[in-house]
């Protein structure tokens, strides 16, 4: 049995054979490509030229690739040492866009560097606050990381890019087919098939998409005019860095949200990498958050989009039980190399949306369930019911009822932005409030003694 | 041998993928001549393809194809759009959604706002800025009783028996495409260049093609003096457009004018409140510069941007 596990799984510090390392890294790279849509949309929305878009994507890929390496390679003071790659962070998208409109790319770069520094400063604080993150809240945060990808994954599976646009039945068929292939390969497959279930699902989904909807192949033809190799050039917009005091508060809030999301991702990565740990080990979490902040600042310095740890990739690691940190390093190296090969990176980014959606749902299932398992792994009481219940009510309401928060007082608007940060912050605060009686009891006892 | 077996699935999959790519790259799409790159929404692209297909049939088989259209009405209507064919005098020849209109002359038919839809279509078909002859008006759905906003595209057809017709289809509850404002702003600039100041009253006319739903073409001088207001029916209340800020403090007009120093047209994105939920959404401004009596002026319009899911 032990031998069987050794053939089909790789533990966090194990170096897989070259072939497996390469294919597993490619599997993770395909999932990381989902996030490249953000720099593409970003450059179109600020009216950037084709050259700007190409450079911006290349710098974003460099930042994500380098960030993945720093996060996982196991440096002494920085990086969690878990399989937890970096991708272009959707949480920073809107705010980065606002900064770019107000002060151009120099301001966006400056504010991303600022947010990265805030994330780095939060890392030791979160470690010191370990008592405010009991196991059930850690589980809730991890589950919410999975919940936070529901919107993008389901929309992608239906092949929809914009709200209200037409949905094709064929896209749903392609997405569901890919998802079923991934799930069944994972459930019924062994060894190679189980390990590469996502890759097999994505490839078969892509082939089916080509058969059912030839436009997916025609899209591939557009890459023929893109150069195979190109060095990103540092245009005038990438030569300056500026700051704006008015943007400090929103960027601080988004940095806190980003830290909480990465906190959840790193906790999940730890849970699947070191399942025997009885209590959360906050040292790698702190080092991971430090690496996350550093990567964000690096993205600003390079002139790319802010990066963030990827929930989907952590979920994939949980699904395949291939946990080697070297796969994350490999994926980072491939991402850096692909930044110089625009033809290849563009071709990969043309993967049908329903296939990408299926991949994120597949990975998200693991995040949600790992979190729920962790949450209910210890004794339950009515305090926890109200902490989790109320946090979920208000956290999820930000997604269900965005119109309500648009009219809410400003201080509520700042913190009630997204299900993950809202739930995380509320659960921590409510847990402290609902346990005030226990705290007072303890203080009384101390006073008596 | 063992290794080959182990990696066979991946090798076979990659081979299938590569051969399929090679095969497909040798094929041609029937829409190769139809440029749809200017549209962002699938609904819009699908509608243009739908009308294009019908135009090809009509062009090939002439009025004989009308029998096919009539006998297969369900193929030419969906829950979002349907096909219609008119002659250039405004007589309806075929209507997949409202059969009772067939044979009637609708040249003077107006929508609820007074827009003469058929006359606007004839104008759009002659407009080189408007390759798919888009017209925006208010209509209703078959069997329903409330007004529905509509954007329709049209193609001219000369049948083999010499008849001049146009084929069209309209999308109910259409998306706001950037291309729609590009068409009306470019059209307005052309009109100003041809007719000078006299063009302003035509452009400001709410029944013209230069305004639809919440969109209207406006114009102003470099010092900010309004020539056609973006928000009111007259120019009595002057707005300092260059000083106007969006919801995040961005000055879209100021930035657009800077960019227009080296370009003829510019797209500028900004944030505004959404009409119903009042949350922030992205909108965009399309601005062009032109010259009137030796003086440079700016002409533009504003529309919504697609909201990513």
Tally of alpha and pi helices of chain A: 22
Radius of gyration of chain A: 22 Å
- Low-confidence runs of chain B (pLDDT<50, min 5 residues)? none
Mean pLDDT of chain B: 88
Total helical elements of chain B: 7
Ranges of chain A where pLDDT stays below 50 over 5 or more residues in a row are: 1-8
- Percent helix of chain B, as a range, is 25-40%
Assign the CATH architecture of the largest domain in chain B. Answer: 2-Layer Sandwich
Oligomer: heterodimer
How many beta-strand runs of chain A?
A: 2
Number of structural domains of chain B: 2
Supply the helix-strand structural class of chain A.
mainly alpha
Largest interface, C-beta closer than 8 angstroms, per-chain residues: A-B, 44 and 47 residues
Strand content of chain B: 15-25%
State the separation between the terminal residues of chain B, measured CA to CA: 48 Å
Q: Helix and strand succession of chain B?
A: HHHEEHEEEHHEEEEHEEE
| Topology, number of strands of chain B | 12
Q: Which fold name fills CATH's third level, the topology of the largest domain in chain B?
A: Beta-Lactamase
**Helix content range of chain A:** over 70%
**How do the SSEs of chain A run, as a string of H and E?**
HHHHEHHHHHHHHHEHHHHHHHHH
A few lines on this structure:
The complex is a heterodimer of chains A (about 450) and B (about 300). Chain A has about 450 residues and is mostly helical. Chain A has 22 helices and 2 strands.
């Amino acid at each position: 049995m032990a031998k069987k596990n050794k053939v089909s799984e790789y533990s966090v510090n194990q170096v897989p054979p070259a072939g497996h390392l390469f294919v597993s890294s490619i599997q993770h790279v395909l999932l990381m490509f989902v996030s490249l849509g953000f720099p593409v949309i970003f450059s179109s929305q600020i009216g950037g030229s084709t050259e700007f878009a190409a450079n911006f994507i290349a710098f974003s890929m460099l930042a994500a690739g380098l960030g993945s390496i720093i996060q996982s390679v196991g440096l002494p003071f920085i990086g969690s040492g878990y399989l937890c790659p970096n991708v272009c962070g959707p949480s920073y998208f809107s705010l980065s866009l606002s900064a770019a409109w107000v002060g151009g790319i120099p301001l966006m770069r400056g504010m991303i560097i600022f947010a990265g520094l805030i994330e780095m400063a939060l890392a030791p604080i979160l470690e010191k606050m370990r008592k405010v993150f009991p196991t059930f809240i850690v589980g809730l945060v991890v589950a919410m990381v999975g919940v936070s990808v529901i919107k993008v994954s389901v929309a992608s599976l239906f092949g929809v890019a914009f709200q209200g646009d037409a949905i094709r039945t064929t896209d749903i068929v392609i997405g569901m087919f890919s998802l079923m292939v991934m799930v069944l390969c994972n459930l019924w497959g062994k060894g190679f098939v189980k390990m590469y279930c996502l890759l097999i699902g994505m490839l078969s989904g892509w082939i089916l998409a080509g058969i059912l909807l030839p436009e997916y192949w025609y899209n591939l033809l557009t890459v023929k005019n893109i150069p195979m190799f190109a060095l990103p050039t540092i245009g005038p917009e990438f030569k300056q860095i500026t700051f704006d005091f008015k943007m400090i508060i929103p960027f601080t809030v988004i940095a806190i949200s980003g830290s909480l999301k990465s906190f959840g991702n790193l906790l999940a990565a730890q849970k699947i990498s070191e399942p025997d740990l009885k209590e959360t080990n906050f040292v790698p979490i702190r080092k991971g958050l430090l690496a996350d902040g550093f990567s964000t600042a690096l993205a600003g310095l390079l002139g790319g989009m802010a990066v963030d740890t990827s929930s989907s990739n952590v979920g994939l690691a949980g699904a395949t039980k291939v946990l080697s940190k070297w796969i994350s390093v490999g994926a980072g190296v491939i991402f850096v190399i692909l930044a110089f090969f625009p033809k290849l990176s563009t071709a990969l980014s043309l993967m049908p949306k329903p296939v990408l959606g299926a991949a994120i749902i597949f990975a998200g299932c693991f995040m949600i369930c790992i979190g729920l398992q962790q949450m209910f792994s210890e004794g339950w009481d009515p305090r926890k019911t109200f902490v989790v219940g109320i946090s979920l009510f208000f956290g999820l309401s930000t997604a269900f009822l965005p119109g309500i928060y648009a009219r809410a007082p400003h201080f509520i608007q700042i913190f009630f932005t997204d299900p993950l940060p809202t739930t995380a912050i509320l659960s921590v605060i409510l847990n402290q409030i609902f346990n005030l009686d226990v705290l007072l009891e303890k203080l009384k006892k101390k006073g008596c003694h | 041998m063992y290794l080959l077996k182990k990696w066979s699935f991946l090798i076979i999959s990659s081979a299938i993928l590569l051969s399929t790519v090679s095969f497909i790259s040798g094929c041609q799409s029937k829409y190769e001549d139809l440029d749809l790159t200017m549209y962002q929404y699938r609904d819009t692209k699908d509608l243009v393809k739908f009308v294009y297909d019908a135009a090809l049939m009509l062009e090939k088989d002439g009025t004989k194809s009308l029998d096919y259209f009539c006998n297969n009405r369900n193929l030419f209507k969906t829950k979002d759009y349907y096909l219609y064919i008119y002659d250039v005098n405004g007589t309806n020849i075929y209507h997949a959604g409202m059969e009772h209109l067939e044979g009637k002359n609708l040249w003077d038919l107006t929508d609820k706002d007074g827009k003469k839809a058929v006359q606007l279509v004839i104008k759009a078909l002659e407009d080189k800025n408007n390759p798919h002859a888009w017209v925006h008006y208010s209509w209703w759905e078959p069997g329903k009783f409330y007004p529905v906003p509509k954007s329709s595209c049209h193609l001219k057809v000369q049948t083999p028996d010499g008849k001049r017709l146009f084929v069209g289809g309209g999308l109910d509850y259409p998306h706001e495409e950037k291309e729609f404002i590009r068409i009306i702003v470019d059209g307005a600039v052309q009109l100003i260049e041809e007719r000078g100041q006299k063009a302003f009253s035509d452009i400001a006319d709410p029944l013209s093609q230069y305004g639809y739903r919440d969109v209207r073409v406006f114009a102003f001088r470099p010092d900010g003096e309004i020539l056609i207001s973006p928000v009111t029916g007259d120019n009595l209340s002057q707005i300092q457009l260059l000083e106007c800020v969006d919801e995040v403090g961005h000055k879209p007009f100021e930035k657009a004018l800077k960019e227009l120093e080296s370009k003829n047209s510019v797209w500028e994105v900004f944030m505004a409140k959404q009409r119903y939920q009042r949350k922030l959404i992205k909108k965009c401004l399309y601005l062009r510069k032109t010259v009137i009596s030796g003086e440079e002026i700016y002409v533009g319009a504003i529309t919504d941007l697609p909201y990513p899911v």
